[in-house]
């Protein structure tokens, strides 16, 4: 069998596997199977060796007779429960990114803003063993957490994943040759700052997709792509997922849903020297002037950009250095547990 990156494992449970237990009331617990390990709850004890050797999706009983369903976590389950240094890209958005950007097996992909590695794991799965993922992250702690999470999920560091600590604008030109990249994924505070370096890296027809949280970031990003003249007309969207309660005749939408998490902006690199035809549209109340843009987006007409676009200004909650160090240790512990019992480790 050829080596798989971020594999969907199957077969009997072994030590080192991650297990998702669903209890009598639907409560979920995720942990790594360890030699002599035990799962404790106020309802009793479940030894890890009771799970080892069982096929996936088996029912096990703890010391007090409570039944639990044992499953290997799916990628979606894993990213929602893994240690986080930064807010993750939710599975609903990661799936859209893979689809809208047409991430294909064998693609060379650049990712800026690794965060906790949730999107990286989806990209690695999409490009397969023949593809390349080049990730850039400004904060070393985030890079460490992301890499540890990748090891915890797959059992080893993916060989086709390169993580560089540094600024994309400064690092990308020397890391990869111009025109050699198929896709660029920007999950960062100010993706408009990277329009030129992205255009240089992408092959003609290549796709750039940006993930931004607020409408001001969305507007600023779209307008910069338009002003550059290097890309097709950008497309913007958001994805909302609403679950349904289905039980007998009680069929209704869930009271809670995963609504807005972020916007996606996509565009494609134009061939050198190409001038994009202007969009024909009727005059309307939505027409705007440069003065309008300056009042809406200060750094496009007045003011200092460094003062306008900050994490605090767009509502991003940042963790303290102490919390980040704790997250690094937590992620590394899970990765170490995963590797200790990995065959051949």
Automatic annotation (TrEMBL):
Residues 335-345 have a biased composition (Basic and acidic residues). One of its GO terms (molecular function) is tRNA (adenine(58)-N1)-methyltransferase activity. It comes from the Bacteria. The keyword Transferase applies. Residues 80-246 form the tRNA (adenine(58)-N(1))-methyltransferase catalytic subunit TRM61 C-terminal domain. Residues 290-345 are annotated as: Disordered. Keywords: Methyltransferase, S-adenosyl-L-methionine, Transferase, tRNA processing. The keyword Cell membrane does not apply. One of its GO terms (biological process) is tRNA methylation. PANTHER family: TRNA (ADENINE(58)-N(1))-METHYLTRANSFERASE (PTHR12133), TRNA (ADENINE(58)-N(1))-METHYLTRANSFERASE, MITOCHONDRIAL (PTHR12133:SF1). This is tRNA (Adenine-N1)-methyltransferase. It comes from Leucobacter denitrificans.
